[in-house]
Amino acid sequence: MRTGPIILVTLALAGCQGHQSVNVPTRPSRQPSALPATAPSDARPLALLDQDPVALRDMRVRLLEASGGEVIRELRLEHALQTQLDRESIEITDAAIEAEEARLLAELDDDRDVALRLLQNIRDAQGLGPARYRSLLWRNAALRALVQPHVAVDEDAMRLVWEISHGPKVRVRVIAVSSFSRAAAIAEQLEQGAPFDRLAVDWSTDPSRDRGGLLDVFSTADPSFPTALRQAIDELESGEHTNPVLLGDRYVVALLEERLPADAVTFDSIQGELQTRTRLSQERLLMQEEAYRLRNEPSMRLFDETLEASYLATDPERPSP
């Protein structure tokens, strides 16, 4: 199974989060094929509990609480994307949407059957039914179409992709916390011999906490990782940790476990493959930037308190307590 970034599953779904991510749905009025075949009326029974009917109106508030914020955020991005597509006279075809799924499957695994199973697992975990999944693919296709004029593949870019993939790498653990005082206290405990993995489990807000803060191996040449963190890690010897590093609204303490040497794959031996990978890499980065740029367009007013609460609660940029 491949472990590369599945950028467009996350970016399109939940906005830009973590160090690599994008998802993207369809505007209902422009892309009716992305909608369910039937839209139930408020009163039509959707289920029976014994002999008592349950209608959409009975579920509305709970549905808004559960997913309203994510859905309105998706619709807002779709509206902004469609406006930009119209401005540039670009149409997203069924073929473009199918190509997004093919790219996603190819990135998940070389074996199509395995890739399909992994994709289904992702869809199940992220609540992607047929409508939201097609919308995600549409958003990715729209972003890809919009960034094409800005993609430039040259030798410098290809060499960077080669270095990230085949050059030296690092194995790192991280602890992310919301305050400098907490990060400084953690660094002091590490100096006194406290185990890094235990402190990560106890204090880190990063998803890696369940693995004792362990990240997948990566190259410090990879620009998708924060520059300040890469620079701090480059100054370490194996077994050393950084001082608190400010990354956005978080402070991170990182431990360098080991440096891994480059492999034997030469630049000249894979130039053709590198050209394709470099294009995809640049597209990913530009698509993330475009989604981030458009994330708060168009202007929006929320009239339902439950929807507004859900929207604010699912804001990926809201500060943690």
Offer a quick outline of the entry:
With 321 residues, this protein is mainly alpha-helical.
Number of strands: 5
Element order, helices and strands? HEEHHHHHEHHHEEHH
Q: Tell me the number of structural domains.
A: 2
- Note the total helix count: 11
Q: Work out the radius of gyration.
A: 22 Å
Which regions contain 5 or more consecutive residues with pLDDT less than 50?
1-36
How would you characterize the overall build of this protein?
This protein is mainly alpha-helical. The chain folds into 2 domains: 7-152 and 285-313, no CATH class; 168-260, Chitinase A, domain 3 (Roll), CATH 3.10.50. The protein has helices at 7-14, 56-87, 94-108, 112-126, 130-147, 155-166, 180-191, 196-203, 227-234, 271-294, 305-313; strands spanning 45-49, 52-55, 169-177, 245-247, 250-260. The strands form 2 sheets. A 3-stranded antiparallel sheet has the order 3-5-4, sandwiched between helices. The longest helix is centred in the first third of the chain and has 32 residues, at 56-87. 29% of the residues are buried.
Labels describing this entry:
321 residues, mainly alpha, 2 domains, two-stranded antiparallel ribbon, disordered N terminus
Please describe the topology of this protein.
Blueprint: H1 7-14, E1 45-49, E2 52-55, H2 56-87, H3 94-108, H4 112-126, H5 130-147, H6 155-166, E3 169-177, H7 180-191, H8 196-203, H9 227-234, E4 245-247, E5 250-260, H10 271-294, H11 305-313
Antiparallel strand pairs: 1-2, 3-5, 4-5
Helix pairs in contact: 1-5, 2-5, 2-11, 3-4, 3-5, 5-10, 6-10
